[in-house]
Amino acid sequence: MKEFMSLPKLIMFLSLCAISTCVSGQHSIQTKPNILCLVIEDTSSYQFGCYGNKDINTPNIDALALKGIKYTNASSNAPHCSPARSTLITGCYATSFGMDIHREDYDTPENIFFPNYLRKAGYFCTNNVKTDYNTKLDNKSIWDECSTNATYNSINRKPNQPFFSVFNTTATHMGLVRTITIEGRPDFKEYGIDINKLNMPPHIPDLPEMRSDEAFQLKASQESDQWVNAYLNDLKLKGLDGNTIIFFFSDHGGCLPRGKGFPFESGLKIPLIVYIPPAWAKKLDIKTGYIETRNVGFVDFAPTFLSIAGVNIPDFMEGIPFLGKKVEESRKLQFGFRSNQENYHFDPSRTVSDGRFKYIKNYIPHKPFCLRNLYQWGMPANQAWDTYIISGICKNEDWLIPYKPKEDEMLFDLENDPWELNNLANNSNFKEKLKFLREEMAKHVRETHDLGFFPREMRTKKKNGLYKWVKDVKFPLELLYSSAELAGSASNEDIPELLRLLKSEYAVLRYWATVAFCHLGSTNKLKIAPKSLIKAIEDEDLEVATMASEAICYMDNFELGVDKLINLFRNNFNPAYSSLETLTWYPEQKKSLKKYSPIFRKIALGENKNEQGYQGLVLRARSIQVNLNDIPITDLFTEKEKKDGIKKNKTGRKFIYPN
Predict the structure, then answer these.
(1) Residues 6+ apart with CB under 8 A from 225
(2) Which among 482, 450, 478 is positioned nearest to 466, based on CA atoms?
(3) Mean of all residue pLDDT scores within the chain
(4) If phi over 0 gives left and psi between -120 and 50 gives alpha, with beta otherwise, what is residue 138?
(5) Count of CB atoms within 10 A of residue 345's CB?
(6) How many domains does the chain fold into?
(7) How many CA atoms lie within 13 A of 378 on its CB side?
């Protein structure tokens, strides 16, 4: 009796044949390979079939993984697109140039972008079309072409000129699921996705909105498979397939809550597949058709592209090449960072992993992870989780974690706890591992001259930009690092040092002193506010004044502190909103803040509607009202926004195909 292939196996077989045909149909080998990057957005590796997801069908990407190299420990280094892309384009951690705040442009050195080096080596470099590099320099100027029409098929590319081309699709972006409501979404069964049978991650509550958002994202993953196939076919059609190395990856982790924007693997771990045509695999001495477990980060991409192209790697680059003639041994440690959630929550974390154990250092631990990024909170899943918690229904400790103050140190065993739910930092059995990774993290921060400990508003005041200012004034970075490291673990014995820092000429050192006082107050270690701290609420630097005001709210001066915060908030100073929202997650402070409900209601009704930016202020005031139980989270966004969301649910987002 003959055996017939199942439909998924048949699709996989045909996809493999298509890739093989691409190779066999190629002509002579070039002197330099072409490099094509197919970049999707906001998608984790676990959302693809070749990475173990059985809920969807991605045959072309799966086939590419079988023929190429599938990386299982690839990281975007940052969980937001602009700092991640700033890392990728420079070959340096975005923190080294102060490019780590999402999304903000800063003065940076000029010659730090790798396409410039490829162009000098004769490459035709195109980008279609997203840049998102956190620099004031013209993002498009580093490319030969950068537009929605940019392509390796351009008439401006000379005959046989090697190309480096990037195609970005926004069709998988969080904007797809940022629809306020799930009303109007399709029946996902029509796309082969059974919403009731999805394997949901354990770090989030199993709610209908969670399943709907995940199904919508998986639908986009399936569609990205067709998008990838379109480029494979175009390369074959143009006779470019045998000379083109293909990189397929996401710009960071996925959209489900506690993914994008958060320092967990769900925000940092990405799919990465590299396909190398046989002739070039032989020439570059690269093995293909296997699973690669080495640590790879966005910081390594620029030197790798240069290595493949045979171009010298500049000394300033911090990454190491993982392919090509200049390939180096795998990095033993993978580093990551996050600095903020939108432009109101400055909340830096740093991560380091040896592949099995992962360490997270949270520098402002009194702020819970749940502080709203009001763009992300347009996702129904985020709103549903908040409602579940605020209602008091949730009893699952794992799901309550983001709604409590953070631990200043976290340690996870990724082999046994891949979703990072069991913090081992206080487990004596792992004290040596904790000590080792803590020291490696501190060493890395110093070796890379991490500038990510300057709050957002302070950076904008630096003449010629933060990067140059630090060098010009010979700023004491070591004192900054030690102050930030102390802030989240300070004890009463550190108060003399904190009071000394409060007198510093540098606002950023005064700032970290106030963060430490927030920690002492919020943990009930200090109940009476020192006079110097009370005085600091009038500091000339508003970020210092804001954090000092929040600190005394945890002590014996709540009314004085909150009056200052509300005044700053009414003047649309974003850090004041962050402090006020933080206070709502502390029961005693929330109770005291309730009597200010009429003020927040007045702001939410638009008392400042004649001032620029009042709409954002209204939204943030509503957010505080939600946490004070004054309005349901369904009232956070307007009816117009809900109607627009329903329309988006019905139409989805479109992919851009080869031109």
Answers:
(1) 57, 58, 59, 60, 61
(2) 450
(3) 95
(4) beta
(5) 23
(6) 1
(7) 22
Whole-number CA gyration radius for the chain: 25
State the pTM of this model: 0.95
Q: Is 387 part of any domain?
A: no
| Residue 613's pLDDT band (cuts 50, 70, 90) | confident
The residue type of 305 is F
Domain annotation covers residue 216: yes
DSSP 79: S
Distances (CA, A) of 574 to 29, 430, 510, 581, 613: 56, 39, 19, 11, 11
Over range 249-270, report the average pLDDT: 98
How many whole angstroms separate alpha carbon 382 and alpha carbon 373?
10
Query: Residue range 72-91: average pLDDT?
Result: 99
Give the number of other Cβ atoms within 10 Å of residue 162's Cβ: 22
Q: Which token pair is 97?
A: 């140039």
Q: Is residue 68 part of a domain?
A: yes
Domain membership of residue 260 as a residue range: 34-342
- Rounded Cα distance, 155 and 167, in Å: 17
User: Residue 367 in 3-state DSSP?
Assistant: coil
Residue 329 lies in a domain: yes
Residue-by-residue DSSP string for 177-225? T--S--TT---GGGGT--GGG----TTS---HHHHHHHHHHHHHHHHHH
Q: Which two tokens stand for residue 505?
A: 């000429």
Query: Strand pairing partners for 413?
Result: 357
Tens-digit pLDDT profile for residues 35-78 = 999 999 999 999 999 999 999 999 999 999 999 999 999 999 99
DSSP 642: H
CATH number assigned to the domain comprising residue 90: 3.40.720.10
Q: What mean pLDDT do residues 144-163 have? A: 98
Look up residue 555 and give its two tokens: 């002590």
Q: What is the dihedral sign for C-alpha 234, 289, 306, 137? A: positive
CA dist 352 and 92 (Å) reads 16
At 26 the pLDDT is 43
| Cα–Cα dist 634/632, whole Å | 5
Number of other residues whose CB lies within 10 A of the CB of residue 245 = 24
Confidence of residue 611 (pLDDT cuts 50, 70, 90): confident
Percent of the chain with pLDDT over 70: 96
Amino acid at 635: D
* Other residues' Cβ atoms within 10 Å of the Cβ of residue 117: 22
Mean pLDDT of 86-103: 98
Q: What is the mean predicted confidence (pLDDT) over 545-568?
A: 99
Question: Which residues pair with residue 361 across a beta bridge?
Answer: 350, 409
